[in-house]
Design goal:
Layout lengths: L5 E8 L14 E5 L3 E4 L6 E2 L10 E7 L6 E7 L6 E3 L2 E3 L4 E3 L3 E6 L2 E8 L6 E8 L6 E2 L28 E2 L28
Parallel strand pairs: 1-12, 3-4
Antiparallel strand pairs: 1-11, 2-12, 3-5, 5-6, 6-9, 7-8, 7-10, 10-11, 13-14
Length: about 200
Amino acid sequence: MERPLTVLRVSLHHPTPGSATFAYVPPQVEHDASPLLVGRGPDAHLRLQLPRLSRQHLSLEPYLEKGGARLAFSLKVLSRKGSVWVNGMTLRFLEQVPLGAINRVAFSGVQMVVRIEGGTSLEAFVCCFHLSPSPLIYRLRAEETDERESVPQEQPPPGSGQGAPDHLGFLHSPLQPSPGGAPEIPLQREPLDGALS
């Protein structure tokens, strides 16, 4: 009997309207248990058309935790050009961090949210991609992910009580069909408790 695959639901946003940034993003990719590469190079599994992005900018790396029975994932920075912002932490070349169930990532103007839905297969996983016309992440204090680019920052409404310097949240978004036709789960505003350990 075949074991169910872990699913990574990856939402992507770039502030440039009508850009070709996501021209090569497929609706879904089934991948073996090797790292999934993100970058602008032809060998990237998630290929983004941004001139300041490295050919291999970052990778999502599956691994088996000690005593674990399911794939876990980490994010590793492969670019020397800039930093990658992950769940409140800034990572530089060859640094990596384990991912949780919901992860907020920003690099070179791209906002990415990765949700992990665990399966029992250890041989492969599936990535489902959703392109969002609306920003996915806001930060009260600008923590640039690339020193050479600026990303417009959205501020929370006045009086929202969310004044912590490193607070992140999702913006509400209506149900939107994914490229495969199934509705995407709406992103909800959630408080984040400072830096993750």
